[in-house]
């Protein structure tokens, strides 16, 4: 995914680049996209796990530095481990389950897309967020009691629908994304795009876990 995004970023930041270079960058994007699609299709779970672990670890590191001006390697490694299993393996398997159970929504009605987005928000999201909030303190040595307190204290803020200024983080980020992903993205591309958005969401998780 980074190989795909880099040429696009260069083209946007430097619109005066010669047409030949832009064409070359476009070709690189196409080849990288095709190569990634092949790998993600053949090694769906492994690709999802690697994408989630690497991207969320990097985001956790950035979040710590922005918040504290320093980084805790234990916390970053814990985030990588939890993300690899929860968002990567479990998340990818959950997406596969939705498609196998409800059908491929990229070729179906808007009702099926909405049903998948609702199922993800009400079923998988609370479980995944609880896992992060519990496992991160546990793996960093805070203990079971502190890990349980983390879930009780922070899960409602992440999940509850709010109309005030502290809007629902989960809903505001993931509901629009899910509506787009379930209607336009094939299954093998969803873990990578989810991992990219998760990298942003990780910053908010890192501030409370």
UniProtKB/TrEMBL annotation:
PANTHER family: PEROXISOMAL MEMBRANE PROTEIN 2, PXMP2 MPV17, PROTEIN MPV17. It comes from Emiliania huxleyi (strain CCMP1516). This is GPI mannosyltransferase 2. One of its GO terms (cellular component) is membrane. It is a multi-pass membrane protein. Keywords: Membrane, Transmembrane, Transmembrane helix. Belongs to the peroxisomal membrane protein PXMP2/4 family. The keyword Secreted does not apply. It is found in: Membrane. InterPro entries: Mpv17_PMP22. Its main location: membrane.
